[in-house]
């Protein structure tokens, strides 16, 4: 059957900060120039914000440009940062790095502690007021191409297909959305963005993208332990010196604290579990006091781009562009990316508007967008920290010291003394060592008060998938999980997944090992797509509306 189609000037895939900023900026320009050009946005989450997960401390620089009167319009930026702490954790204690020793770039004063999901919900209201059409619950499952190879738009996934591939009662065919330009704002490791990078060779000449997994909980804490505006970051314990990562703790309003842990996905030990490291982190004497007597409210996980400047691919292709974390604009040392994501969306929108106003047709490359990026504060933001992530391969302590030196030189106007850009040497999935060469890690059992297991965590992420649908965690070769991953790495997918999706099961006598995929648990973090050692796992979108439903995350 031929699918129904709809025509738009701009189609945007993903209602995160980048996509929403792009939609708002495009319609602002339309109204300023008395042109009625259409923009539509589709979002795979059940609502805008349902799949948004970030720390988050947000730099308002992009929001100030996009909506200067955001305070008067009620944007949910309510908690201004009042205090910064940076701790190096040892097993029994901590060392606080004095604020004067920290590069000024890492100062959070003037920034806001927010729920990024709520910020996106508010941005969606502003976009709709400008005439943007937003359709949550529809997953972009397929890229459409014109005969000349340019991007024509996207098609949403069919609804009501059983696990056996057969149509069920209530089957609904997906719809085609055609755009003169299509912006891909899927976030980190988007499935369609990955296809575009391969098809148009967008990664030629740049370093491989680097990633981390961020795991987050939202707590309601004892009012006496709550310090609104407090920001705490840590490095060190429980990770060893060869494993990159660290924590964040942000005190919001309403006695709420966002706490999370990031593990860089170039870790070597296949026995390591990022989820368990996070749970162990909360037991540290310098951390646990904040949460004693508190209640965990929400849980989630998400992959994070960490490659920085040298990993940003070509941003454009015939008929569209990559914006936000689909391309990877996170500033790793600052642990911030929303401001850059928004600005790149705004720049792409400005480039598309100018082209459509002049030419009236799409399909060509938006060459002005990467030119604008090169001359923007986004590029400067990433350029100043470009050598921090590559330096961490020397070890966290030495890498942090050299990274700090680079940032200080740039802040002092002495960047010419460190003018080089160090490339990333290999992709994260290539870093695992055989299990036989690594020490197993004995993780303590959760107490259900401060530390928890995966399944109870997934429960409070409000994750839900229609069980009778095709599994969206696809394997290129069904034999690899046992023949290769289990044999060489002791099945690391059982540990790097923060939601208990992957499980090696055996017969009662311990024989016949096989991989069971509990796809209904998936929180859409994309870690498996990134870290699988042979890249055998390919994450594709499930039915629209499936996945987590994050409140206030």
Number of domain units:
4
Q: What is the CATH level 1 assignment of the largest domain?
A: Alpha Beta
The largest sheet is: 8 strands, mixed
Report how far the terminal alpha carbons are from each other. 40 Å
Shape: globular
Helical content stands at: 10-25%
Strand percentage:
15-25%
Number of helical elements = 15
Q: Please count the beta strands (DSSP E, at least 2 residues each).
A: 24
Low-confidence runs:
none
What's the CATH topology name of the largest domain?
FAD/NAD(P)-binding domain
Instruction: State Rg.
Output: 23 Å
Q: What CATH architecture of the largest domain would you give?
A: 3-Layer(bba) Sandwich
CATH superfamily of the largest domain: FAD/NAD(P)-binding domain
Structural class comes to alpha+beta
Question: Could you explain the architecture of this structure?
Answer:
It is a single chain. The chain has 553 residues and is of the alpha+beta class. The chain has four domains: 5-69 and 117-206 and 313-383, FAD/NAD(P)-binding domain; 80-114 and 211-305, D-Amino Acid Oxidase, Chain A, domain 2, CATH 3.30.9; 388-418, no CATH class; 428-444 and 452-539, Alpha-Beta Plaits, CATH 3.30.70.20. The protein has helices at residues 17-32, 61-66, 116-129, 191-199, 274-281, 285-288, 338-359, 368-374, 377-383, 388-391, 396-411, 454-459, 480-489, 493-496, 527-531; strands at residues 5-13, 39-43, 57-58, 79-80, 83-89, 94-96, 112-113, 133-136, 140-145, 151-156, 159-161, 167-172, 176-184, 211-220, 230-236, 245-251, 256-264, 295-305, 316-317, 320-322, 473-475, 502-505, 514-517, 537-539. Strands 1, 2, 8, 9, 10, 13, 19 and 20 form an eight-stranded mixed β-sheet that branches. A hairpin with a 5-residue loop joins strand 9 (140-145) and strand 10 (151-156). Helix 1 packs parallel to helix 7 and helix 7 runs antiparallel to helix 8. The two termini are 40 Å apart.
């Amino acid at each position: 059957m031929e699918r129904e189609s709809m025509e738009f000037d701009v189609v945007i895939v993903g209602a995160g900060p980048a996509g929403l900023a792009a939609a708002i900026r495009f319609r602002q320009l339309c109204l300023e120039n008395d042109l009625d050009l259409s923009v539509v946005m589709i979002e795979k989450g059940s609502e805008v914000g349902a799949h948004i997960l970030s720390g988050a401390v947000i730099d308002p620089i992009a929001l100030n440009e996009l909506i200067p009167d955001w305070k008067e319009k009620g944007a949910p930026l309510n908690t201004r940062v009042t205090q910064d702490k940076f701790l190096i954790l040892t097993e029994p204690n901590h060392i606080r790095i004095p604020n004067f020793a920290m590069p000024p770039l890492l100062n959070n004063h003037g920034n806001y502690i927010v729920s990024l999901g709520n910020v996106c919900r508010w941005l969606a209201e502003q976009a709709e007021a400008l005439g943007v059409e937003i359709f949550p619950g529809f997953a972009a499952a397929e890229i459409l191409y014109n005969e000349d190879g340019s991007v024509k738009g996207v098609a949403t996934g069919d609804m009501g297909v059983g696990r056996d591939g057969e149509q069920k009662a209530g089957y609904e065919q997906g719809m085609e959305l055609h755009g003169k330009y299509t912006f891909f704002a899927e976030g980190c490791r988007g499935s369609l963005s990955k296809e575009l990078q391969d098809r148009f060779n967008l990664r030629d000449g740049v370093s491989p993208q680097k990633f981390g997994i961020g795991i987050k909980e939202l707590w309601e804490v004892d009012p006496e332990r709550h310090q609104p505006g407090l920001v705490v970051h840590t490095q060190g314990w429980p990770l060893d010196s060869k494993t990159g990562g660290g924590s964040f703790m942000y005190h919001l309003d309403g006695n709420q604290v966002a706490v999370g842990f990031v593990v860089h996905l170039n870790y070597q030990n296949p026995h390591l579990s990022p989820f368990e490291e996070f749970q162990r982190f909360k037991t540290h004497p310098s951390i646990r006091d904040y949460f004693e007597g508190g209640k965990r409210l929400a849980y989630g996980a998400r992959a994070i781009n960490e490659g920085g400047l040298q990993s940003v691919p070509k941003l454009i292709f015939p008929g569209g562009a990559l914006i936000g974390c689909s391309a990877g604009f996170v500033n790793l040392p600052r642990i911030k990316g929303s401001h850059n994501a928004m600005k790149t969306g705004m720049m792409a929108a400005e480039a598309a508007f100018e082209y459509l106003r002049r030419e009236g047709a799409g399909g060509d490359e938006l060459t002005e967008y990467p030119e604008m990026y090169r001359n923007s504060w986004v590029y400067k933001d990433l350029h100043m920290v470009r050598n921090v992530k590559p330096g961490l391969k020397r070890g966290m302590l030495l890498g942090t010291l050299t990274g700090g030196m680079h940032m200080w030189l740039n802040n002092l106007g002495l960047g010419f003394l460190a003018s080089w850009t160090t490339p990333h040497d290999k992709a994260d999935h290539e870093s695992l060592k055989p299990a036989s060469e690594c020490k197993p890690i004995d993780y303590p059992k959760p107490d259900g008060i401060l530390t928890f297991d995966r399944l109870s965590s997934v429960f409070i992420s409000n994750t839900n998938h229609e069980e009778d649908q095709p599994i969206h965690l696809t394997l290129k070769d069904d034999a690899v999980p046992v023949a290769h991953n289990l044999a060489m790495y002791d099945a690391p997918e059982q540990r790097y997944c923060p939601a208990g999706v992957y499980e090696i099961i055996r017969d009662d006598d311990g024989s016949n090992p096989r991989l069971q995929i509990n796809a209904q648990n998936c929180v859409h973090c994309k870690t498996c797509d990134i870290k699988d050692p042979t890249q055998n796992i390919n994450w594709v979108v499930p039915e629209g509306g499936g996945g987590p439903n994050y409140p206030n995350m």
